[in-house]
Amino acid sequence: MDELKLTALSKQRIEFIDFARGFSILSIVLYHYSLGLVEEPWSKLISYGGFGVHVFVVLSGFGLNISFNFISVKDFYKRRFLKILLPYYLFISFVFIFNQFIQVYPDDNLYAFLGHILFFKMFDESIVTSFGYYLWFVSMILQLYIAHPFLVRLQQYFGKYRFFVCILTISTAWLLLITVLNFENMRIFNSCGLTFLWEFGVGMILGSLFQESQYIFWDIQNKFLLVTCIILGAGVAAILPAKAGGLGSTLNIFPAALSFTALTILSYSLCSKRILGWLKNRIIFVAHISYELYLIHGFLVTSALKFLFSNFNHNLVILLNFLVILPFAVLLAFLFSRLNKQLYRALL
To answer: Total domain count for the chain?
Structure first.
């Protein structure tokens, strides 16, 4: 393949990955900013936005496998620290200090803060959701990042397809185990790295396929297939908890991931049309601040609900969340991302 074609593929890859990250974080924000404010059946529809986390995990595995071949293990961990942990430490330290004066999280103390800083909160159910229930994601993705160099070698040893069977087996066995032990409702078990290992590994495999043969997994022209995956996956994900109890609640991760991934690919295809180009550009902009927005958005909406909107009706709160809190969160995330990029360049 000639250089120009490789360059075009790289540009397309970056655009889709950025779009998918932006689309996912916006869906998660939609979910969080409406959580507890809408009644059924709308609440079930809104909860679909939470499935965006699955695409984030796949994209993480995809991106890391592409970049990992060009850096040492030492540099890999250094870059992960600067890109993920350093902003997280800055954010959680600010929230902890702020909480000493204005108690957004009255039950969270120094022990909980140290749990974030020293990593043990991912093993302690009492503090795993401290300073923001949504921060469980950072604990989970850190576990996968720490394991990534080992997973790369495991993929090289087994080959892509046996590696996929291996990680799928591990995640499935883990989900079955915590269900049998009645741990499926505990965040430290149902949202740890082992639960999402298969998604991360799928992203790694797709990244390797892109490097080796320029396989573009999002280049799916069959819209009927995508719509079928969206509806079927969402339907199964909704039915499983209702029909299979705790086991269904743990296993619905598989159809949920399929459904939201198909939705992301279909949305990218539709937004690539000229008439929706403006929307695609704005979603890609959000992608560039997606991590900072994820960290900030929950703290802002929790503060607003507690101190500003506590006496408002739910419909007005939702409106204010999206017209006031979300734009403010995007602004702060943009400024925070600028700071993070300066620190990254200075410390790399």
So the answer is: 1
> Cα 110–111–112 angle (5° rounding)?
90
Q: What is the mean pLDDT of residues 121-147?
A: 93
* Burial of 12 (C-beta count, 10 Å sphere; 0-12/13-18/19+): middle
Count CB neighbours of 64 within 10 A: 22
Tokens 């639960």 correspond to what residue?
Answer: 195
Are 250 and 184 in contact, with CB atoms under 8 Å apart?
Answer: yes
Range of the domain at 153: 3-347
Which residue type occupies 127? I
C-alpha–C-alpha distance, residues 270 and 161, integer Å: 31
Secondary structure letter of residue 69 according to DSSP: T
* Cα torsion angle, 123, 129, 132, 133, sign: positive
Query: From its phi and psi, is residue 102 left (phi > 0), alpha (psi between -120 and 50) or beta?
Result: beta
DSSP assignment string, 147-204: HHHHHHHHHHHH-HHHHHHHHHHHHHHHHHHHHHTT-TT-HHHHTSHHHHHHHHHHHH
Q: Over 92-132, what HEC string results?
A: HHHHHHHHHHCCCCCCCCHHHHHHHHCCHHHHCCCCCCCCC
Q: What is the C-alpha separation between 304 and 302, in angstroms, rounded?
A: 5
What pLDDT score does 277 carry?
85
161 φ/ψ angles, rounded to the nearest 5 degrees: -80, -40
Please tell me the pTM assigned to this model.
0.91
- Amino acid 283: pLDDT: 95
Question: For the chain, what is the largest distance between any 2 Cα atoms, rounded to a whole number of angstroms?
Answer: 62
- DSSP run (H or E) holding 312: none
**Token code pair at residue 208:** 């390797």
